[in-house]
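Notebook B, p. 112. Complex prediction, attempt 2.
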Amino acid sequence: MRTARRIAEVPPYLFAQIDKQKAEVAARGVDIISLGIGDPDLPTPDYVVERMREEVRNPKHHRYPDYEGALEFRQAAAAYYQHRFGVELDPKREVLTLIGSKEGLAHLIWAFVDPGDYTLVPDPAYPVYRTHTLLAGGIPHAMPLVRENRFLPDLAKIPAEVARQAKILFLNYPNNPTAAVADLGFFEEAVAFCRRYDLLLCHDNAYSEMTYDGYVAPSVLQVPGAKDVAIEFWSLSKPFNMTGWRIAFAVGSPKALDALGIIKTNTDSGQFTAVQFAGIEAISRNAAAFTRGMNEVYRRRRDVAVDGLRSLGLEVERPRGSFYLWVRVPKGHTSVSFTELVLAKAGVVVVPGTGYGQFGEGYVRAALTVSEERIGEAIQRIRQAL
Ligand SMILES: *Cc1c(COP(=O)(O)O)cnc(C)c1O
């Protein structure tokens, strides 16, 4: 058989390589501490699981779900945006249920990108934006995220001829992998840029609820008029420890949501309605108390990790958002050589920054997905390895 050319173009999935090296180290009997994949270690709240137990018994949910998502879930999403961001949304036209943000982001690209079109993609970034642009025959134009510009893209550096041939500008703040945050002023600039070049602004807001030290992350839809040009993805995965459930939603431009909906109705048949009702439980009355508690857990882990890494002479900022640390590798190391060193000598898994793009060189990403105690242990082992 002969597979499509596009399959050969996909860069190897980052975590597949790490998993292989990890298995080799584990086979030597090493107790591995994984700060690799950004997957919360704590369980989904009990009341969400209980709601799922009830909903799964309802025979109404056993049939095909509504394509655009259960109206009740979309209403709960709209209520969440109103309460949390002060953003008014019409649940029927401006909210779409997704089988996780990854699904929605991937399909959005197929709804917008024709062969030869550009997309404007941060580098480093969550890999889906670039990979699906390539699969769709498009050309990802890298916008470097560098420390000198606080890991924000410099929109003025995008060549006008590229911007004119582009379809989507991708942003993600609080950011994976750099843990940088953006203020509303930057989103205003991005909205104006997309208006000028007739682009869709796609903001991936997966980490808006994971913030510290009093910082509150905005929605891009807080910018006046943003709904004309922007779509925002919001996921229950990270804030509510629900990565396995596959539930998220997209909000914003009805035109963009309709186009995404056309790809989706011809591809999937929506998320299990029982999962959507359990999702309502997550984003309704207990949401703020739950995320506040989780942020306290991550803040303490962050401080143990940042203080520990700095005591080893490593450079790392104390992030105000996400649950990642973006750590400079020591002099004489590359991202990959440092990742291999801490895995082989300390049994600690981190991700090389280059897995997220060429401008990730010189960094590794560590996820705060183990206990404070295990973070302390990881620091001690890295100290010995160095
Ligand atoms: C984890 C992550 C997602 C994926 O979220 P799902 O809703 O679980 O698919 C999307 N974007 C970024 C930046 C992420 O880190």
